[in-house]
Design goal:
By secondary structure, the chain is mainly alpha-helical. The chain has 7 helices and no strands. This is Globin.
Amino acid sequence: MSVINQHNLAIFRQSLQRVSASTEFFDCFYNSFVAQSDEIGEFFKNRDMKQLKKKLRETLFMLAETAEGRPGLTLYIEMLGRVHLRLKVKRKHFVMWEEALLEAVKRYDKEFDDKVLAAWLEVIDNVIETMFRALDETKQMAS
């Protein structure tokens, strides 16, 4: 994982605290994400959305800890990458996920500005790249 700017990490954490205080934030995210494509909508059909929202909340807080470079969490993120590969989740789906998430942050963080956006992008992109690096390494070892 690349090193995250500590100032951006602090901004990310503060913003995350603000948005995660509202359950509507998670509803907004999933409504936006699922509406982006039939493929995504189908994936979430008949899923326990209450559980998924809880898991998303936990994952977002874990992103901040992962961005600090905690080794165990980096391994967890790499494992998540392999899980998503088995589920046939593609890079384009992560782009849609990020777009829906940032839209929800913009809507629910009353202090949203360019600095908050930059902080979220840095943390999220860093973690997503870690996942894809792990997937690339897995593919190389398999061939």
